[in-house]
């Protein structure tokens, strides 16, 4: 039995109290949900893959100087993170049109956008996470203008870095979502990247075949979700099938 104190259980993860003050344990479940929980399934192995993929992303972001909540991976499904006060705004970056922007603006899926576009969504399940502007965010005090600037500049850096990282393994980063949190340190506060970066919150298309390697496989009943996530992990050089193995590093895929 688990005697740790459970702080929060969401759709995809559970947060437990961490071993030291200011830390939390983030546990990745196998639950897959879409359309604000209207569609739900257990996909065996998803949590293990997302724990690994998110670890890989956050470790790489730290390496280029982007602060994140990630401290270290604890086991197959859990990682130790810094406890933060989550900014109740999801930051989405889009490089190629897909998902809700297609409906909203009448774009065909796959249309390259003239430049990367950042959007904000208010984190409120009961409202279906509505899109909001900077005006709403500052008027309602969800974040300050300075925090919005910081989120935008960090998001652009993450996007540039991850786009390149995925391109190197033959994957187009179509769009993704970030969450930020406030880390308090005495009388200082700074924003760091929190939550997770995994195929649950990204759109990833194979550059050659255009095949979807992300949660759209679940949303659209395309099947083989785990195989797709495994393929992402395999190309990034993250071994999951064979735990004894060593990290190989990214698998270079030549794009034509
Ligand atoms: N470092 C952190 N400190 C505190 N909370 C965090 C941290 N990282 C992520 N969270 C929050 O923990 C929860 C993770 O659980 P999960 O992703 O399953 O939630 P969810 O069902 O998507 O719900 P939500 O709408 O709140 O995101 C999220 O609410 C996320 O904002
Ligand atoms: Mg979530």
TrEMBL record:
It is an enzyme of class 6 (ligase). Residues 7-235 form the SAICAR synthetase/ADE2 N-terminal domain. The gene is purC. Belongs to the SAICAR synthetase family. PROSITE patterns: SAICAR_SYNTHETASE_1, SAICAR_SYNTHETASE_2. GO terms for molecular function: ATP binding; phosphoribosylaminoimidazolesuccinocarboxamide synthase activity. InterPro entries: SAICAR_synt/ADE2_N, SAICAR_synt_PurC, SAICAR_synth, SAICAR_synthetase, SAICAR_synthetase_CS. One of its GO terms (cellular component) is cytosol. This is Phosphoribosylaminoimidazole-succinocarboxamide synthase. Keywords: ATP-binding, Ligase, Nucleotide-binding, Purine biosynthesis. It catalyses: 5-amino-1-(5-phospho-D-ribosyl)imidazole-4-carboxylate + L-aspartate + ATP = (2S)-2-[5-amino-1-(5-phospho-beta-D-ribosyl)imidazole-4-carboxamido]succinate + ADP + phosphate + 2 H(+). GO terms for biological process: 'de novo' IMP biosynthetic process; cobalamin biosynthetic process.
